[in-house]
């Protein structure tokens, strides 16, 4: 299997998706109106594919692109404050060659990690519906099927945590609910995979001190240990 070519074909399919009328309308409205700070920029305004190292052993799973972050730049966690926190932590843990992610041409390279989300379009108020989540699930399944070395998931927030367990159930790896409760730093081994949970680096968590940089660093340090210290994951 030519993994880079397969991933490129999947990316093209994802970015052309129009399955969810509400999300299509919202992402395009945001891209047309724009935020004043970005009024001179061309917004992406389409579904956002995952990105990273095709040989990744760690998959980082969030919620969805931010309206003026990924929906603007076309790259997950890029151009918003959540991404500022995420990439600083990934850089310190050795997964990223730089501590910033500003746009798709900024030179960012991930090593050993892939970043994705269960919902590919920016949802109003960051709240996708159940149907929208389910419409997007095949994209997550297809993407992760092309990343066979992934054995560790870093879940940013409860939504990503639930989505990873749903994905593993669809793969037949774990049984139906209940699944272990979400908690920052929780670690669950399931069918040869390890799921590590973290509070999402959203401003609601970082501004209030619910999530600190040392807390996020600890999660990614653990992911790096799992990726480097276990058996071959290929």
Notes on the protein architecture:
There is one protein chain. The chain is of the alpha/beta class. It has a single domain, classed as Uracil-DNA glycosylase-like domain (Uracil-DNA Glycosylase, subunit E, 3-Layer(aba) Sandwich). Helix content is about 40%, strand content about 10%. It contains eight helices and six strands, in the order H-H-E-E-H-H-E-H-E-H-E-E-H-H. A six-stranded mixed beta sheet has the order 1-3-2-4-6-5, sandwiched between helices. A hairpin with a 2-residue loop joins strand 5 (about 185-190) and strand 6 (about 195-200). Helix 4 crosses helix 8 (about 215-230). The longest helix is centred in the last third of the chain and has 17 residues, at about 215-230. It is globular, with a radius of gyration of 17 Å.
Describe this structure in a few short sentences:
Helix content is 40%, strand content 11%.
């Amino acid at each position: 299997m030519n993994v880079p070519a397969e991933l490129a074909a999947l990316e093209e399919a994802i970015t052309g998706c129009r399955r969810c009328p509400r999300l299509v309308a919202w992402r395009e409205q945001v891209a047309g109106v724009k935020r004043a700070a970005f009024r001179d920029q061309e917004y992406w305004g389409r579904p956002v594919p995952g990105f990273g190292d095709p040989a990744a052993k760690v998959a980082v799973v969030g919620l969805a692109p931010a309206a003026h972050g990924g929906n603007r730049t076309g790259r997950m966690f890029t151009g918003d404050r959540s991404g500022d926190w995420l990439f600083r932590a990934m850089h310190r843990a050795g997964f990223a060659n730089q501590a910033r992610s500003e746009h798709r041409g900024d030179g960012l390279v991930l090593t050993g990690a892939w970043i994705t989300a269960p919902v590919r379009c920016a949802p109003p108020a960051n709240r996708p519906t159940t149907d929208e989540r389910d419409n997007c699930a095949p994209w997550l399944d297809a993407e992760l099927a092309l990343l066979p070395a992934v054995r560790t998931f870093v879940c940013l927030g409860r939504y990503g945590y639930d989505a990873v367990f749903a994905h593993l159930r669809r793969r037949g790896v774990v049984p139906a609910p209940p699944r272990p409760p979400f908690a920052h730093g929780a670690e669950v081994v399931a069918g040869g995979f390890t799921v590590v949970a973290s509070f999402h680096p959203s401003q609601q968590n970082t501004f209030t001190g619910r999530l600190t940089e040392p807390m996020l660093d600890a999660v990614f340090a653990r992911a790096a240990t799992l990726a480097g210290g276990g058996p071959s994951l290929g």
